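Postdoc handover notes: sequence design on the structure in folder B. Input tokens:
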């Protein structure tokens, strides 16, 4: 039987914080894949229709900024869990 002394509880909380930080970092995978896919499709669009380059690039950059913010949020949460949450 495990006795839940303050040291054991602190270790469990720290372990859970590290696991949570790892899961939060996985949240950066989706935006990274999506941003790469969007850049590839924008490149295809510019190749097909060079005169629409300005509109295509502007729309792509706006979408990448919005989708990239979720990756930044997951990184901030991971840093908080590792250094300040436990």
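Designed sequence:
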């Amino acid at each position: 039987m495990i006795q839940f002394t303050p040291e054991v509880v602190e270790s469990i909380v720290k372990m859970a914080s590290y696991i949570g930080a790892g899961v939060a970092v996985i949240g950066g995978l989706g935006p990274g894949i999506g941003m790469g896919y969007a850049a590839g499709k924008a490149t295809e669009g510019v190749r097909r229709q060079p005169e629409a380059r300005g509109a295509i690039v502007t729309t792509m950059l706006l979408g990448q900024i919005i989708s990239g913010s979720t990756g930044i949020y997951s990184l901030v949460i991971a840093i908080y869990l590792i250094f300040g949450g436990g």
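Context for whoever picks this up: Helices lie at 6-26, 29-48, 53-83. Don't rerun without checking with the PI first.
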